Amino acid sequence: MTLQSSRIGVIGAGAMGCALASGLRDAGVPKDRLRLSDVDPDRLSQSVARLGVESAPDNVSLVGDSDVVILAVKPGDLT
Predict the structure, then answer these.
(1) Of all helices (H) and strands (E), which one includes residue 8?
(2) CA-to-CA distance for 38 and 25, rounded, in angstroms?
(3) Angle at the Cα of 71 (from 79 to 4), degrees rounded to 5?
(4) Do β-strands 34-37 and 8-11 pair in parallel, antiparallel, or remain unpaired?
(5) pLDDT category of residue 75 using cuts at 50, 70 and 90
(6) What pLDDT does 9 receive?
(7) In sequence order, which ranges of 1-79 are alpha helices (DSSP H)?
(8) How far apart are CA 19 and CA 22, in angstroms?
(9) 52: left (phi > 0), else alpha (psi -120 to 50), else beta?
(10) How far apart are the C-alpha atoms of 61 and 26, rounded to whole Å?
(11) pLDDT tens across 27-43, in order?
């Protein structure tokens, strides 16, 4: 399995998550293989529109549909 063929989910659509997703796209990961989730629906919709990737309705579905999951949240935000 390569990054380009993996389904990659990013939990956290803030600066860190968007930078990682953008870097993965630049590295050749197709947009349709990247998904974002975030607790803030407005931030999520803005990030998805800016990056041209898909969103997940919640973290559980993102994890279930991903081969690789990146946690891009501040440690204090994990619950």
Answers:
(1) strand 8-11
(2) 19
(3) 150
(4) parallel
(5) confident
(6) 98
(7) 15-26, 41-51, 59-64
(8) 5
(9) left
(10) 25
(11) 999 999 999 999 999 99
Predicted model pTM? 0.93
For residue 66, the model assigns a pLDDT of: 97
Cα–Cα distance between 32 and 74 in angstroms, integer? 26
In angstroms, the CA 34 to CA 6 distance is 9
Cβ atoms of 13 and 36 within 8 Å: the answer is yes
Q: What is the mean pLDDT of residues 58-66?
A: 96
pLDDT of residue 79: 65
Look up residue 25 and give its two tokens: 């796209």
DSSP 45: H
